[in-house]
Amino acid sequence: FDEHRIWQQLITKSQTGALKWMHRYRLEQRLMMRESGSVWQHRARYFVQVTWPIPNHPAWSVSAYEEAFIGLRSLENPVLNLLQQNRLSVALNHKLEGGTTLQLGYLQQVLWKGSGLAAERNHVLLVGVRHNLDFRD
């Protein structure tokens, strides 16, 4: 099925000693197009990430995050499947010149199926490139 999402989010960042923390709170309105018609569902997501710079190697860091996907009451299924998905990851990061970061890590994704009793577990190799654009003068 096709899915279209509208979402709102709040991101907070803080630091405790050398550890950098990021929290993301997101609400999603999900329009899912099925053969039987369209269905609206709502979901909340909470993401927390901690990044630890490796001492004496300023270009290197280790990060870990967890993200929970929480189904909010829907007309189609008002009780079941509260926790829909969970992601847990750990990665090694390397900052390059010019705002580019390379990332190599592991992600475990758990998807709970319709009743909330059966789960699918996926093990994923993360390979990422992130580039921050700097529009300052």
> What is the first-to-last residue Cα distance?
45 Å
Give the CATH architecture.
Answer: Beta Barrel
**Major beta sheet, strand line-up:** 1-2-3-4-5-6-7
Secondary-structure content class: mainly beta
Report the sheet-strand fraction.
Answer: over 45%
Task: Give the helix proportion (percent range).
Answer: under 10%
Number of strands: 7
Write down the secondary-structure element order.
EEEEEEE
What is the CATH C-level name?
Mainly Beta
Mean pLDDT: 91
Give the overall shape: elongated
Q: DSSP helix count?
A: 0
Largest sheet: 7 strands, antiparallel
Overall radius of gyration: 18 Å
Estimate nothing, just give the exact number of structural domains: 1
Identify the quaternary structure here. single chain
Low-confidence stretches: none
- CATH-defined topology: Porin
Q: Could you name the CATH homologous superfamily?
A: Porin
Briefly characterize the structure.
This protein has about 140 residues and is mostly beta strands.
List keywords for this structure.
7-stranded antiparallel sheet, single chain, Porin, elongated, 137 residues
General description of the model:
This protein is mainly β. It has a single domain (2-131), classed as Porin (Beta Barrel). 0% of the residues lie in helices and 72% in strands. It is built from no helices and seven strands. The chain has strands spanning 2-16, 19-34, 37-53, 60-71, 83-95, 100-112, 119-131. It has a seven-stranded antiparallel sheet, with no helix packed on it. β3 and β4 form a beta hairpin. It is elongated and about 55 Å long. The mean pLDDT is 91.
